[in-house]
Design goal:
By secondary structure, the chain is an alpha+beta fold. It is built from five helices and four strands; from the N terminus they run E-E-E-E-H-H-H-H-H. The longest helix has 18 residues.
Length: 121
């Protein structure tokens, strides 16, 4: 959902909600907000919830920077560039970055459909 969401139509004209939208669903009071705002709040809360959270979860800018380079650069170059741009205190350790890259690359391989050949003899 985006800020351009249409809730319905009245006399042929679209009805655009003003966020946040307060609703009751199944007897539970709820608030509807744009998806981007939800993820920003989730990231912020995750970063604040535990001092043991990864620096990648605490800093969306650092995470984005690393993700943009993960398929084209090696880990040492990525980390060096990140430290230069963001400072040592915001960049994950070499081992944390290595774990993140291994998991991310594995997830990308699983998400990419494989070409199969079906041979008929």
């Amino acid at each position: 959902m985006s800020d351009e969401a249409i809730m319905g139509r009245a006399e042929g004209e679209p009805i655009h909600p003003r966020f946040p939208v307060q609703v009751t669903l199944f007897g539970i009071a709820a608030v509807i907000i744009p998806e981007a705002e939800y993820w920003a709040l989730t990231d912020r809360n995750a970063a604040l919830s535990s001092p043991y959270r990864s620096r990648l979860n605490k800093s969306p800018e650092v995470r984005k920077f690393i993700l943009e380079r993960i398929e084209t650069d090696d880990m040492d170059r990525i980390r060096e560039a990140a430290v230069e741009r963001f400072g040592e205190d915001r960049v994950p350790s070499r081992s944390a970055l290595s774990r993140f890259m291994v998991k991310r690359r594995a997830a990308n391989r699983l998400a990419t459909p494989r070409k199969t050949s079906h041979r008929r003899d």
